[in-house]
Design brief:
- By secondary structure, the chain is α/β, with parallel strands linked by helices.
- The protein folds into 2 domains: 248 residues, QueA-like (3-Layer(aba) Sandwich); 84 residues, Thrombin, subunit H, CATH 2.40.10.
- 18% of the residues lie in helices and 28% in strands.
- The strands form 3 sheets. A 9-stranded mixed beta sheet has the order 2-1-17-16-14-3-12-13-15. A 6-stranded antiparallel barrel has the order 5-6-7-10-9-8.
- A hairpin with a 2-residue loop joins strand 6 and strand 7.
- Helix 6 packs across helix 7.
- The two termini are 25 Å apart.
Length: 358
Amino acid sequence: MRTSDFDFPLPEELIAQNPARQRDHSRLLVLDRKSKTFEHRKFFNLSEYVQRGDVVVLNDSRVIPARLRGTNAKTGGEFEMLLLEENGVNDWWAMLRPGKRARLGTKILVLDGARKPAQVQATVIDINSEGHRRLQFVGADNVLQELKTLGDMPVPPYINRADAASGENDRERYQTVYARQEGSVAAPTAGLHFTERILGTLRAQGVQICFVTLHVGLGTFAPVKTETLAAHKMHNERYTLTESTARIISEAKRADGRVIAAGTTTVRVLESIAAENHGKICAAQGSTHIFIYPPYRFNIVDSLLTNFHLPRSTLLMLVSAFAAPGESNGRETILNVYAEAMRLRYRFFSYGDAMLIL
């Protein structure tokens, strides 16, 4: 399939710049794959579509305040650093802007919240083929522990607010209520709509809630730049699935319960493990670069909760595959749904509305 097949025009005003006032008051478009019909609800109606014996699987990765500011120790020039992947304590791959000025050996003074030099410094020690810089930090036992005071939340670049104060609640809202395992540099956005009340309602209905961990990288949201999908190289992301979660999912499958994945990151963990274990789920830890696009037959996931995604993104391709498992026409279904969502002024992307595919 061609990447251009997954392009669509999106009015800029439909890109959500702020979260809904209340998490579970986002809109929810419910798509029935078999009938290709859909209805329009609110996220707090989710419990009406889930039943006893079902399992809802959530990604409990926690977003770190990975965006740092700094100045060149020699010239005073400003840098923005986005931490991407930890190699070891105080050793990180990062995206720097402006990258051309961050040559090997460049020393950067990290700034605090008042934009004054902190005790922490970084040195560029390597540059990879993607232009990312490897940074060695000094001045802190572990810079990861300093991010709460030094870093900002790494909200996506399409969130471009004129009023800086409007982003003050990002530390709370660009984070799921169940986030536990630190390591993501982007939120698993389908989970942003959940509240403790909704989770409690689901449990009271006899629905099991369990967790996987996949640390989300920027590659998740990056558009595919190759002409064909087959030529695209997927990024790696680290995951963990525990014995407890594996047992809950396996028991539900044996009892004909549905596995409902909250987010494409959760899908990637479950389907990666199943692909390596003859369609079965088991406890595992590792990294995945699975790229799911039509046609694809899913082994574990029965229903998908997701947001509305960027044109030409791997997320849109995964959702298209899920809309028609094992077939190639899911793209048409999803683009038709997206057209209706745009007509009705649904909010798109990370802080936008949700879709449930049954």
